[in-house]
């Protein structure tokens, strides 16, 4: 399968997603009924990816966030990255366990384009924002991954090297996940 040529654009108006459908009912309902209010209420950035014909194939919303890691999560990081505590970047945050992150608020790919690695491309794009002054030197990328009987994004995020920072609670529709920025 040939790789799509996609163009990233920062947007302000969610009404441009009027004909955008991800195929996940809860996400589509949110996009069409509440995304505009969310964008007005919170300090975040809303991006779309368009193909060469101008069709929006994906959207995502990100914000500056804080990742809170308990001692178990910090121990997991030590196992994955044995020298992590020696990092000068982490020194000021390690004791408190609160780290600056880029928070993925929403990420959706148009139903017809799913399975073409566009989601992974978005994760790479978000990773490139680590040097953007808007984010004040984030160390992690974090997300509340949607997880229901209808659809789960947890597997996608695991493929993108995210780890769960909490046990899965069957009564909550999201799982808090994170990964280091490259």
Please, could you describe this protein's structure?
This protein is of the alpha+beta class and 182 residues long. It is 27% helix and 29% strand. The protein is built from six helices and seven strands; from the N terminus they run E-H-H-E-E-H-H-E-H-E-H-E-E. The chain has helices spanning 25-33, 35-41, 71-80, 88-94, 118-128, 154-159, and strands at residues 7-11, 45-50, 56-68, 98-109, 140-146, 163-164, 174-180. Strands 1-2-3-4-5-7-6 form a seven-stranded mixed sheet. A hairpin with a 5-residue loop joins strand 2 and strand 3 (56-68).
User: Residue ranges: pLDDT <50 for 5 or more in a row?
Assistant: none
For the sheet with most strands, the description reads:
7 strands, mixed
Average pLDDT figure:
90
Q: Report the radius of gyration as a whole number of Å.
A: 17 Å
Q: Largest sheet, order of strands side by side?
A: 1-2-3-4-5-7-6
**Which overall shape is indicated by the principal axes computed on the Cα atoms?**
globular
Counting helices, strands and paired strands, the structural category is alpha+beta
Q: What is the ordering of alpha helices and beta strands?
A: EHHEEHHEHEHEE
Number of strands: 7
Helical fraction:
25-40%
Which helices and strands occur, and which strands form pairs?
Blueprint: E1 7-11, H1 25-33, H2 35-41, E2 45-50, E3 56-68, H3 71-80, H4 88-94, E4 98-109, H5 118-128, E5 140-146, H6 154-159, E6 163-164, E7 174-180
Parallel strand pairs: 4-5
Antiparallel strand pairs: 1-2, 2-3, 3-4, 5-7, 6-7
